[in-house]
Amino acid sequence: MKSSSQYLYDSYKKHFQEIADIKYASAVLQWDQETYLPQKGNDTRGRQIATLSELAHEKFTSEQTGHLLNELMMRDDLSSKQKRNIELSFEDYKKNKKLPSAFVRKSTEAINKSFHAWVSARKENNFKIFEQPLQEVIDIKKEETELLGYVSHPYDALMNEYDKGLTVKFTDVLFSALIPHLTVILNRIKEVPQIENDFLSQFFDKNSQWDFSIDLLKSIHFDFEAGRQDISEHPFTTNFSSRDVRLTTRIDEYDFGNMTWSCIHEGGHGLYEQGLPYEEYGLPLGEYCSLSIHESQSRIWENCIGRSLAFWEHQFPNLKKYFPNQLKNISTVDFYRGINKVTPSLIRTEADELTYHFHVLIRYEIEKQLIEGTINSNDIPFVWNELYLKHLGVKVPDDKSGCLQDVHWSHGSFGYFATYSIGSLYAAQMWNAIQNNQPDVLEQLKIGNSSSIFSWLKSNIYPWGRFYNSNELCKKVTGEVLNAEHFINYINSKCKTIYKYK
Amino acid sequence: MKSSSQYLYDSYKKHFQEIADIKYASAVLQWDQETYLPQKGNDTRGRQIATLSELAHEKFTSEQTGHLLNELMMRDDLSSKQKRNIELSFEDYKKNKKLPSAFVRKSTEAINKSFHAWVSARKENNFKIFEQPLQEVIDIKKEETELLGYVSHPYDALMNEYDKGLTVKFTDVLFSALIPHLTVILNRIKEVPQIENDFLSQFFDKNSQWDFSIDLLKSIHFDFEAGRQDISEHPFTTNFSSRDVRLTTRIDEYDFGNMTWSCIHEGGHGLYEQGLPYEEYGLPLGEYCSLSIHESQSRIWENCIGRSLAFWEHQFPNLKKYFPNQLKNISTVDFYRGINKVTPSLIRTEADELTYHFHVLIRYEIEKQLIEGTINSNDIPFVWNELYLKHLGVKVPDDKSGCLQDVHWSHGSFGYFATYSIGSLYAAQMWNAIQNNQPDVLEQLKIGNSSSIFSWLKSNIYPWGRFYNSNELCKKVTGEVLNAEHFINYINSKCKTIYKYK
What we know:
502 residues
């Protein structure tokens, strides 16, 4: 017979799954907005999404939720997974209760305003238009850190939204271990002849690129019975359950790399979502661990695997079938070197694996200071341009290719950027663990077999959901907490092979 | 300054628009289910749709709704449109309250069971499997007629769900005016040589058919900035506001007619949805009048216009550009005759404009008797086959091509079929009014111009929403209530021209 705790747990499950139904419904509406929505449908779509969000929020912050969770927190006859679900839901609930609805409303309004200002500012290529609305968002974010609470640095409270347990202290240590090494490598590369990769900018027709993208996704085990790919302006991954995962990509006919690595990147995100436990639908253990771990799952496929020589030894002949003329004089090694060219640049999303971290560092430093209050939004262009010159040696010509390039701040997403770098470091550390665990992994990749990599991720990363936080999971599967060493070794060895410096 | 009634009306509007947001969100999820959903996503999608339906229902039947409507029904300082919205919402609310939630649950369960039984029965080509589950649905429908109430015939209560004010008495009069004339025409056709239209069954490739379908929709003024077309197994039209209308079509490469007239048909539905007043979003005046009027809007474009010689005098040369080989020996008149071939057949959805009404009559007669209780579900196959022999002279070989062909009964949609015929009669009556009003309409069609037809519909039919019921609207725009005469004249004159009988 079912115990009273099990009855109560069932009520909790039903309640939270209904909230998930509403949230996922809203995600379907957003997916449709980015892929198929006719232009004039935008206004009504906005209000439909807003209504669903409010409903989900109301249901989540209702007395019923509080009652269920308070009651279940006192029960000790639940399984360890059930207990963990309750703990995590309770954490979410308490955090949510810390933000009064008047504050949430104010925040939504400020973000809405700042997003529109950012769009105008980009159009006019003038940060001044964005300055004041952005400062309002920053002030609200500062207030949020006080409402949420923190131990040592206010910015910790914001980073926690994306990666629970992440701190300024930890991130500073990581960057200070990482950045000097990357600077050394970058300087060495400057001393040797640069790689030529113009062949990536020929004409690659849309339909063949699309077909190749499907091949790529199949090769990395994306399940098309539990997901699909469509076209959107900015690639993204979303899901409406672990059995319905939607990827999008974009195709630039004069830039082969644009689709290819964003496709593998989103595919990696998609594999993670498809691997989350379906039976935990709507509950914390059915949700991804953190944005950092999510990013590690995209980066390991995009970079560690998708930019490796072994991977392309198998894929390149296939690619040549689609584009025989464009690639007829290119060898696999030429291709491998070309797709790994390292060069300082202005735009984060177009950066190579190495210089990418400088882009992230710059944003991280600026955000920290904005939240500390040591700088304000009107200082951003100056600080931004100084840091780009210092770290990457590039001169920022205008705001559009400088501090107006990313949407994140206009959305109020402060504390997000670091997870991009941290995700890459997790990826390198996991990739190292996989290679130690499976010494023939590169040999297998060369013959087009990535099953053992997929199996490793499928049994070590995907099934845990939010059971562990990022670093606990990392320690469990790699034997040590996150450190910069594995990424440094990985990128150093790759650059050395490619650039042939001493 | 706003009056208290206006404040109250604003609350009503906000409340009903939120309910609409949820319903339309559910419609997006259903549209996605029919067009893009990956196979394994089906289960979760089912529960997401169910949760949204329950939420919308809860909100609609809440005390808040009752309070707002009761209060507003007593106000006399509202505009006539506002009053009409309140009256109609109140009607809906009261009707909804007549069905206790236990009854709704029982009904949903029975329909779910009968739908699955229908699928199995079709697969096994055996009505027996469907018989008992269907009888349960029929019994529930009988109960529903008592709960909803009716004046003279219980079946009236069910027809009212689809077309307010429609009665058995009125429908019987229509059919008895219509059917004898159609039988006479059918007999005349039997006496003259049959038309040859095999050319429609050649190979017509998918992509060209798709491109032609877009041409067709543009030619009838479908606004692609406020809607789109996609592929699904069964063509349908849905909308998420009047500025986001989704059509679907299917393409059979060996049956040119399959896509063409279903595309124009759905396009006609879509034009109506796009023409409904956007400012009445979520309120009765923003909703379609009735299923009969909806059907009139699809049929007028599909048949009166889309199967006219004038229309194809312009479109046929365009079509020939897509399929020069298939159509090289076919003249516009051959084509016109071919697409209007009249011949008794087994399947409703494949029937021509004339014999279509016999298919509807047969279902109408059977439903009426089932609801009266003069026959039961186990009588259906016999009665069905008898009626097909009597009216169309065709022998039904098995249940699949007989009484198992339509999904409607398995969905509990009793009272629906008549609206198909009635919609065609409304279409013919409106078409007659348009021709009287615009004597050069056919001349305009010949040069590809259907703007004046579109304008007439856009000013006479679309903007009214549910302000009038079907027959009130008909009288207002054609000067008389619905009668069979216009359709009889229309089809008689067409068949005479095509078959050249005396």
